[in-house]
Design brief:
It is a single chain. This protein is mostly helical. It has a single domain (about 5-140), classed as Sufe protein. Chain: A, CATH 3.90.1010.10. About 50% of the residues lie in helices and about 10% in strands. It contains 6 helices and 3 strands; from the N terminus they run αααβββααα. The chain has helices at about 10-20, 20-35, 40-45, 85-95, 100-105, 125-145, and strands at about 50, 60-65, 70-75. The protein has a 3-stranded antiparallel beta sheet. The two termini are about 25 Å apart. About 35% of the residues are buried.
Length: about 150
């Protein structure tokens, strides 16, 4: 997938980060952490449906849903005391919402490295976001195979 083919909302998020000075990128990440959507009630009552992202230091759980129109929705939880992780989860939740399965599967695996945070946060944290994207794709492939 070339830069022009990156879904519009992910391209916009990346542009927003890259337009900022390094020190301001963390502030934008913190703003994303405050915008992580709440879980729908159907998942709040069934945490067993969520998958833990073991690569993240903080307890992060995700669930990918595909509706009847083949539209993807990513739901995630991360504790408020882990704002970097919450920010990454929020970027993916906002960036993937409304895409179709093929669009999500075509997102470059290195998208988390492309948003300009590799100098602002530890490689371990970037690895966590990469793992969230990877697990999302794996869940979608598993659904397609079923």
């Amino acid at each position: 997938m070339t830069e022009q083919q990156l879904p519009a909302q992910l391209a916009e998020i990346r542009e927003d980060f890259l337009a900022l000075e390094q020190r301001d990128r963390l502030q934008l990440l913190l703003e994303f952490s405050n915008e992580l959507p709440e879980l729908p009630e159907r998942y709040r009552d069934h945490p067993d449906l969520l998958e833990r992202v073991e690569e993240c230091q903080a307890p992060v759980f995700i669930f990918v849903e595909v509706d009847d129109a083949e539209t993807v929705h990513l739901y995630a939880t991360a504790p408020p005391e882990a704002p970097t992780t919450r920010g990454f989860a929020s970027i993916l939740a906002h960036g993937l919402d409304g895409l179709n399965v093929a669009e999500v599967l075509a997102i470059p695996d290195d998208y988390p490295q492309s948003i300009g945070l590799t100098e602002a946060v530890s490689p371990l944290r970037i690895r966590g976001m990469t793992a969230m994207l990877g697990r999302t794709k794996r869940q979608l492939r598993a659904r397609a195979a079923a």
